Amino acid sequence: MLALNQVAVTYPSGIKALKPTTFTIEQGQFVVLLGRSGAGKSTLLRTLNGLVVPTEGRITAEGLGPLSDPATLRRHRRTTGMIFQQHQLIGRLPALANVMTGRLGYHSALRSLLPLPGIDQMIALRCLERVGLLDKALARVDQLSGGQQQRVGIARALAQQPRLMLADEPVASLDPATAASILTQLREISANDGITVVVSLHQLDLARRFADRVIGMRAGQVVADVAARDLTDAAADAVYREDAMNAAPVTQRMQKVA
C-alpha cells in the first residue's frame, strides 16, 4: 500500500529526526511505531501523509504514485485519516460539525464555504454512531471527556472514508482503561473495514496486545521490524535499552495480513 525507499528527514536546525528508512506497509495491517519520546515516531508517521516532507528518499502510494507529486499527495490525503494526541478539534462546535470537517476534502474550496450536502451529514452521523457517540452529536466537544473527544477524532477520520488511518500517540493522555478502549476500536475498524492503521505508541504492552506488526524506533532509526507475536525481549531491548544503538537491528520479513 505504501512503500518507503530510503526516506530520511533532517530539520532546518540540522537535527536528523529520521535516518534513511526503507519498508513497505501492506493493506489492512495494524502497524505500531514503538519507541521512547523523541525516537522519531511522529516524524516518520507524519511523512506518510506529507505533514513532514522527507529531505531524502521517496514514498509511493499504491495505485497513486510518488507522494512528491502535489496532485498525488492531495488524492492520498483525501483518503488518509489523521488522529492526533491533542485531538485537534474545534471546541466551540458540536461533535457533528467537527466530524463533518472530514468531508471537506471531497469538495472544492469554494463549495466548502457553503453548508455541505445532506449525504455528508448522514455519513458523519453514521461515523458518530459507530464510535458510540450518536447521542453526543449536538454537544460541544469541549464539554466531552478526553476519551470522548478522541472518539470524535476517530469519527472525523472515518468520515473521510479512508483506506489509511494514522494516529499520532492517540492514547498518551488517556487513562489505561480508556486507552485500551480506543485502541480496541481502531483495531476493530482495521479488521472490519480492511483499513490500514499506523499508530505511534511508547507502551510496549499495548503494542504487543493490539498490533499485527511492530516497527521499533530509536534515535531516528528503525531498530526492530517484527510481527507483534515475535516482539521478543531482545527486540524490546533494541528499542528501549540505553546502549541499544550498539545492537544490531532486529527484523523479520513481514507477510501480507489478510
Could you list the spans in which at least 5 consecutive residues all have pLDDT below 50? 253-258
Give the helices and strands as they follow along the chain. EEEHEEHEHHHEHEHEEHE
Shape: globular
Beta strand %: 15-25%
**Whole-number mean pLDDT:** 90
For the record, the CATH class of the largest domain is: Alpha Beta
In total, how many domains does the architecture comprise?
2
Can you summarize the main beta sheet?
Answer: 7 strands, mixed
N-to-C CA distance: 13 Å
- Number of DSSP helical runs: 8
How many beta-strand elements? Answer: 11
CATH fold assignment of the largest domain: Rossmann fold
Which homologous superfamily in CATH is the superfamily of the largest domain? P-loop containing nucleotide triphosphate hydrolases
**Helical/strand content category:** alpha/beta
Going across the biggest sheet, name each strand in turn: 6-7-8-3-9-10-11
Give an overview of the whole structure.
The protein contains eight helices and eleven strands. The chain has 258 residues and is of the alpha/beta class. The strands form two sheets. Strands 6-7-8-3-9-10-11 form a seven-stranded mixed beta sheet, with helices on both faces. It has a four-stranded antiparallel beta sheet with strand order 2-1-4-5, covered by helices on one side. Helix 6 links the parallel strand 7 (164-168) and strand 8 (196-201).
